[in-house]
Amino acid sequence: MKIALITGVAGLIGSDAARFFHAKGFHIVGIDNGMREYFFGEDGNTRRNLEELRNECPNFTENNTDIRDAAAIARIFAEHNRDIAVIIHNAAQPSHDWAAREPQTDFGINAGGTLNLLDAARQHCPAAVFIFSSTNKVYGDNPNRLPFTELETRWELDPQHPYYEKGIDENMSVDHCTHSVFGASKLAADIMAQEYGRYFRMKVGIFRGGCLTGSRHAGAELHGYLAYLMKCAVIGREYRIFGWKGKQVRDNLHSLDLADAFYRFYQNPRCGEVYNMGGSRFSNCSMLESIRLCEKISGNKMRTVYVGSERVGDHIWWVSDVSKFQSHYPGWRVTKRAEELLGEIFEHNKTRWAAEA
Questions:
Q1: Quick one: residue 284, left, alpha or beta (phi over 0 = left, psi -120 to 50 = alpha)?
Q2: Residue 299 contacts by C-beta under 8 Å, 6 or more apart in sequence?
Q3: Contact 216/255 with Cβ under 8 angstroms?
Q4: Residues contacting residue 4 through CB under 8 Å, at least 6 positions apart
Q5: Residue 132: left if φ>0, alpha if ψ -120 to 50, beta else—which one?
Q6: What residues contact 207, with CB distance under 8 A and at least 6 apart?
Q7: Which of 218, 192, 216, 219 minimizes the C-alpha distance to 206?
Q8: How far apart are CA 348 and CA 138, in angstroms?
């Protein structure tokens, strides 16, 4: 039996990775204790995703386990031992703002939980491929030092800058900057994942995601902005814009495109490799542009309010340079632009959201 052990399996990336790998013949061993609802309330509830996995994936086993519990994690690894072919670690506390409320919880999950999983893999299935979902927030606010021009609907990078054509690559420094508490805990996990790859020669890949989204995203105000933005458009909820005149730019990658990248890495893994992963120049939009897209797709005028203060460590502009990953795995590509992503989110959720209005 070939097992894909997936943490955060009820979340967006975890559930779509589970479907993707299940379709490839893997038995899915999922770990998720529903903490997203603790972080974000009912908007963060992922019970629906979990129920869909139970119905859609016959070879799915779930564990309601906290990744901070090293002994419990070790027991799961020991139970499945050498059958584990790949670990896909997505479980995290994912919000800037929430992390500042409970730094101990944030660091315990993001850094400590990651270490528990890495070491369990080293002890029980060292030949398995380990995929870690990191974040572009490990670069802190260093991207904000790039030269930008203010346009009508977005901030844009100076066309003369080397990052203009393809986006920000993996050579940007993660040092000498403000990360936010969340960015710091993910950076600690990111570096430890690299170390297990390089020091212990484990097949560890680190994927620094930008704006990752999809139709099953349980978007909340503090995390998952495209899904939450569309939900606000559908139900008429006021949407708060935090700083940068609403012109901050994010690239957007579909969760199934990321799952495809995970699978390609699994097929030909490397030790301690780091990749920036996002929609690249192919798929990106500003906050103002995404609001207009939501209005166009939903047919509703949005209610928005501008909050002048920016979130600590937040990016003015982020577009991922994915050319390193594409050079290692030439068959992979970004398949959907921002408007297509928002359209999919709308179609998948409009009936349920309308009932909540």
A1: beta
A2: none
A3: yes
A4: 17, 18, 21, 22, 26, 27, 28, 29, 85, 86, 87, 88
A5: beta
A6: 131, 132, 133, 134, 258, 261, 262, 275, 277
A7: 192
A8: 32
Specify the amino acid at residue 156.
E
Element (H, E) at 256: helix 255-267
Tokens at 142, concatenated = 């260093």
> What phi and psi values does residue 221 have, to the nearest 5 degrees?
-60, -35
Structure tokens at 176: 């000498």
pTM of the model: 0.96
Angle at 289 between CA 287 and CA 293, to 5 degrees: 115
- Give me the CATH number covering residue 122: 3.40.50.720
Q: Determine the structural domain holding residue 333 and report its residue range.
A: 3-356
User: Residue with structure tokens 């506390």?
Assistant: 93
Overall residue count recorded for the chain in this entry? 357
- DSSP-assigned letter for residue 110: I
DSSP-based three-state secondary structure for 113: helix
CA distance 155 to 152: 8
Dist. CA 98–CA 95, nearest whole Å: 5
- CA neighbor of 260 nearest in space, from 194, 348, 336: 336
Place of tokens 């899904």: 227
Domain count for the chain, please give it.
1
Three-class SS state of 354: helix
Q: pLDDT tens digits for 63-90?
A: 999 999 999 999 999 999 889 999 999 9
Q: Which residues of 278-353 form beta strands (DSSP E)?
A: 284-286, 304-307, 317-318
Distance CA 144, CA 102 (A): 26
What pLDDT shows up at residue 357? 64
How many C-beta atoms lie closer than 10 Å to residue 347's C-beta? 11
- The predicted model gives 219-224 an average pLDDT of 80
